[in-house]
Amino acid sequence: MTPETLDLIGGWVSLVLTLMVFSYLLGDNFLYRIAVHVLVGVAAGYVAVVAVENVILPWINATLLADPGEAGQTTLRGMRAVGAVPFLIGVLLLFKVSARLAPVGNLGLALLVGAGTAVAVIGAARGTIIPLARETGQAAGGEDSALIEGVILIIGVITTLAYFQYLAAARDGRVQRARGLRVFSGVGQAFVIVTLGALYAGAILTSLTIFSGVFRDQLEFILDKVGG
Amino acid sequence: MLNFLATATAMIAGVTMVIGLLSDPGSDARAVAALVIQLVAVTGAIAVLLGILNLLSVHLGRFTHAERGWPYSLLVLVVAVGVIVLRILDRAAIWSGDLEGEQLSPRVFEAVQVSVESALAALVVFFLVYAAFRLMRRGVTGWNVLFTVTIVVALVGWIPLEDLDVFAELREWLVRVPVGAGARGILLGVGLGTVTAGVRVLLGQDRSLRD
Lengths: 228, 211
Known about the structure:
heterodimer; A: mainly alpha; two-stranded antiparallel sheet; 6 helices; B: mainly alpha; 79% helix; 0% strand; extended
């Protein structure tokens, strides 16, 4: 068997799987389910391979199987102890399988949650809130049309944020927002809908582009191999 | 007691990380934060591995008990194990003759994973268009009309038609001003929500670790 033969087999497999997925347009059927289960199997296998090859093995080599070299015994022992921590947490996570022993598993999860939360908080503050607030504040700094657009932008941002406020109070037997907030959130809702509409159009365009790419690739393969 | 320990661990890890991430590069606190991130990355990989083992054990159970859809479970098992075995053979450089030095696992990835994922992504276009059509059939409201008009303007604005530059200009303005404002508002809201929820965890007020 040559690499060219493997390419040919790969091309046919790709064509057949693509047709099996597109068969879903006729309704849910066994061909589509076979293609999806093949995808699940391949993805599971690959993720396992990548996790072991790119993360776990390098970590073991750098810590648990570290070369003594010039490092002292104390340093080496420390590295090995640190190297064992993720595996200890992994064992703790296994306890989550049982409802009775789940609190033991929570100990392992706690480190992940704490560290992940800190990264998310700092990332959101530094990467989203501060730059976006600064940019929005500077948006109205231009002249004429740019000034008008900047004002619309600021109103849009403020009213969009107001739309996601759910503060309400009981009035006349009904729980409702304050009148001012209702007006603001109504304007914000319009901005949110326009944004989601544009994102929806973008999603249609993206999937249409992918569809035409898939269609072109498979048609080229058929014409190349069958048409001669 | 265990719940208290879990909450305390999350708080200590979180506060240590916050201090480390806000410290100067090269400081001890930053080094500790970097180590914790490494630990979390490796733990995450181990958790992913455990998740895959769980997935395979569920499918093995469905297959051995001949539950409904067991042939699909068998397929998942065979394909997953096949990919792992193929990768091991690739690493062992077992191929000879014309295939010497070849890596077969990337070819399988290309032929299966890429083609099925591309086909699934391509399939989405039909459901998006159908869903937009169904939206208007369910009832015409002002918000529905605004949503649909935005979609139409954004799509028509992409078509390079002569004498219809007005749609392209309208689309460009739409994306720059109202969509820019809405997207910033949504992103700021998400950011503020993340900080609020995160601070609750760091202060030990979140109950997710107590369940």
